[in-house]
Amino acid sequence: MSRFDQLYRKLIVTKFFTRGWGEPENLKKIFDFRKVLGNRDECYKLVPPDYPVTIDKDELQGDVRILEGHFESPFKKCVPGLMPKETETARFQMVLPKEWKSHHKPVCLQLAGTGDHYYWRRRTVVARPLLKESGIASIILESPYYGLRKPKRQLRSSLHYTCDLFVMGGALMLESLVLFNWCERHGFGPLGVTGISMGGFMASLAASVYPKPISLIPCLSWTTASTVFTKGVMSQAIPWKVLENQYSVDTVYADEIKHTLISPEQVLGSTYNMGHEFVKTYSDKLEDSKLNQSPSNTENTLKERHSHAFIDHDDKMDVQADIHSMEDYIVKKSGCKGDNKTVGKSPIDRKSLKDNALDFMRGVMDECTHLGNFSVPVDPSLIIIVAANHDAYVPRTNVISLEQLWPGSQVRYIDSGHINAFLFHNVQFRHAIEDSFNEQIRKYHS
């Protein structure tokens, strides 16, 4: 694993899921709807071919044409009540040539990675060079919870609840269908979809629900997000005590939800059960690292981390307020008094809580993000995966590989870590996009 990845994560103060898992009833709704999203035929029916899209701006900027538009997210109607008001309107920007140089009008949809707000980075690093080098236009879709779609109380990319990530994924799948259909109506094609890191996961999900051959180029992502949040360095960005305590207090998570989670790794007979061994190992490492730190020092440790990071005082207070408010809720619901971070548990019980929370996180992440739970893209030969050999953000051990899940796809490896590849290897990402589009043109558009 890249040491630079590990160091970089330590410098980032952003916390995820500071208010917990999300309401149990919301998780149940998401899991039920995931079964619809996992069936391409059923999912495609949710988005009419003529779904309305509004173009707000059409102008020339130097050597390119820029369109901007919006539409109402179909997810809002499919699963009412889950999307915050600010996230309900999908917004996008399109980077086009002044004039097409061939009878093809290829367009690649770009989905955002973690922390990629607005359009600037994807437009500058991918869209403009891709258009200049390969003649491929881009649609840059703003993710729910990001940019203009960010809830007012949310800090930067800090999703409040675990279920927010699943709402984001489901919304992007349906919104991608809206844009694919819109492109077809306006004579654009061939079509493709790409993204980096979290954007690569979302791109894979989007391609799974499109009923035609499509180029798919997921970069720095893999089969499931479960290892990202339980084994990768992103696990350090999660306030585990909040999740552990909420899981122990609200029995719905363990008694009703956990028993419904079946990982594709189990069904496919791979090494999913090794995850339980990992949970134990990870918990043991946590105990060792905190051997000389009492539970009462947890808040001081959090404050110390914040004081060394580039974040203003108000943001620090808001992050702490989220965590404290959840802890107050846990104490009130459990009836416990005293140190609300331990909820009256013995050290043995605390270790059991850690095991349970990690296991539950892996289960819910596999349920909603594991690509084995979704349809295989129509033509896997158009899939080119770009992965980093030393990726500490997206561990690939003990999970089924994308080549196994999508026979016929190919993987290209970069000899670096996640952050290094993200910053310095965008040319490899663009080459993969171009190669996939060329293959699609050869097979279907000659």
Automatic annotation (TrEMBL):
Per the UniProt entry, what species is this protein from, by scientific name?
Mytilus galloprovincialis
Q: What is this protein called?
A: Protein ABHD18
Q: What is the lineage of its organism?
A: Eukaryota, Metazoa, Spiralia, Lophotrochozoa, Mollusca
A Pfam family of the record is ABHD18
TM ranges? none
SUPFAM superfamilies per UniProt: alpha/beta-Hydrolases
Q: Which domain of life is it from?
A: Eukaryota
